[in-house]
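Budget justification aside, the reviewers requested a transparent look at the raw inputs and outputs of the sequence design task funded under Objective 1. We therefore reproduce one unedited record. The lines immediately below are the structure tokens for a 471-residue chain.
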């Protein structure tokens, strides 16, 4: 196939930089179905963060979607199924009995598995429900682990679960497996390293090869890490660090096809500012006016995207204390203009650190033994975040939420040669609404995409199918 126009820099597995060409847009432009709402307009529904899997599909045309749905102030896990590649859909089914969030789905033949986080009773834990008839009926949920942020994968009769669990002063990423379709479970293995706030794990499986990607904070900011097993989770290789910079990295998404591993994530490295810079500026202001921070109850290992959420909370608390004390300090002879200028710098840093993110991609051709360097997928003003990647054979698809046009919309790019070359990023949602939390399931020539969107005025779950034509 003829190739035109240089686009990206791809780093080969040898570590050398190579220039990559893109396929002609006309030859790779997919046929995209219209946005299809899977939840009613009155619903308040959303897909999980992109490190988990909100959609799973197989070559028989079965598509399975899971999401949160809030009703009367309580959030439950819901499921929908299509037997014909998303043309028609069965009724919505509620899977959780207690309040649940952050679901993840996996499929093997007629067996479908859904794991999610339950917050009652405390402590939070991971529950699992399964279906043996392609989602027609479901088992009652069972609690299979303590922790949160589950992501599940399946190969044959073996289930693979990863999640994050809290210790006394830290968060750790764990792995647990079942070799009998979820009837019994092996002992948990803690796989993260020396950081204090590991989380947002993503897992992918191809035969006996298992790849888990996650973020951890050994240097104080979130970085991307990978652990790999080549014997169905019996043993694990050493922790592999994929990023190293002083700025934050977002939750990863990982996919495996054969021996080729694909990982995508959002990163702040190109913007120059980090939320920790804003906190340091506030600390300087507090020293200047003689304040000490009093919100010691805000732990660095809070839930969510752990370190970032706690950091945002500390910044807000410190800002409030500075604003409350600034007038008193000024009355005692301090310069309020100096404090005002320093607070404006805090605002600038927070805005840049919050809004300037880009999508990055790396690949390994040998089951994680060696890795190519990063490919920067986006280079536009605004936030490109929430990457979801899927692979089937040589075909790889990457989808993310991007606010380059104003409100967040979904963009995607495709490779048909195992990630060596890529199409230009293209927008796949058109409405002037907020499209976030995409999740993609990839089959040969076809991708099934779900996401959360405010098209109706409330958050709903939407579906569309992308099919390659003209290859």
């Amino acid at each position: 196939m003829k190739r035109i126009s240089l686009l990206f820099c791809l780093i080969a597995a040898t570590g050398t930089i190579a220039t990559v060409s893109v396929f002609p847009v006309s030859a790779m432009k997919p046929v995209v179905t219209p946005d299809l709402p899977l939840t009613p307009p009155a619903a308040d529904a959303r897909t999980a963060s992109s490190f988990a899997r909100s959609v799973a599909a197989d070559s028989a045309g079965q598509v399975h979607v899971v999401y949160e749905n809030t009703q009367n102030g309580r959030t439950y896990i819901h499921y929908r199924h299509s037997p014909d590649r998303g043309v028609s859909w069965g009724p919505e089914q509620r899977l959780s009995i207690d309040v649940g969030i952050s679901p993840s789905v996996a499929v093997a033949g007629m067996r479908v598995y859904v794991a999610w986080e339950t917050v009652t009773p405390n402590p939070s834990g991971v529950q699992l429900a399964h279906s043996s008839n392609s989602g027609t009926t479901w088992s009652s949920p069972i609690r299979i682990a303590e922790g949160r942020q589950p992501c599940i994968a399946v190969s044959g009769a073996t289930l693979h679960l990863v999640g994050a669990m809290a210790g006394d002063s830290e968060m750790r990423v764990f792995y647990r497996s079942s070799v009998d379709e979820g009837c019994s479970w092996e002992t948990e293995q803690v796989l993260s390293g020396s950081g204090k706030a590991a989380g947002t794990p993503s897992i992918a499986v191809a035969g006996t090869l298992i790849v888990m990607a996650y973020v951890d904070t050994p240097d104080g900011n979130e970085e991307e890490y990978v652990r790999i097993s080549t014997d169905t989770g019996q043993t694990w290789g050493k922790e592999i660090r994929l990023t190293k910079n002083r700025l934050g990295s977002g939750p990863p998404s990982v996919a495996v096809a054969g021996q080729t591993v694909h990982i995508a994530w959002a990163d702040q490295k190109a913007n120059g500012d980090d939320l920790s810079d804003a906190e340091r500026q506030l600390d300087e202001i507090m020293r200047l006016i003689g304040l000490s921070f009093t919100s010691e109850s805000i732990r660095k290992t809070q839930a969510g995207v752990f370190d970032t959420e706690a950091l945002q909370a500390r910044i807000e608390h410190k800002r409030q204390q500075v604003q409350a004390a600034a007038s008193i300090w000024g009355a005692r002879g301090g310069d309020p203009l100096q404090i005002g200028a320093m607070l404006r710098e805090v605002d600038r840093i927070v805005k840049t650190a919050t809004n300037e993110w880009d999508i990055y991609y790396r690949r390994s051709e040998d089951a994680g033994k060696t890795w190519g360097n990063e490919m920067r997928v986006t280079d536009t003003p605004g936030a490109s975040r929430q990457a979801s990647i899927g692979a089937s054979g040589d075909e790889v698809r990457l989808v993310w939420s991007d606010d380059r046009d104003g409100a967040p919309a979904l963009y995607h790019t495709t490779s048909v040669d195992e990630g060596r070359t890529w199409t230009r990023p293209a927008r796949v949602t058109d409405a002037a609404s907020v499209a976030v939390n995409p999740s993609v399931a990839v089959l040969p020539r076809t991708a099934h995409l779900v996401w959360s969107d405010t098209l109706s005025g409330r958050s709903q779950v939407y579906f569309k199918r992308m099919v390659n034509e003209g290859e």
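The chain has two domains: 4-268+356-468, 275-352. The domain at 4-268+356-468 is CATH 2.120.10.10 (Neuraminidase). Computational costs for records of this kind are itemized in the attached budget.
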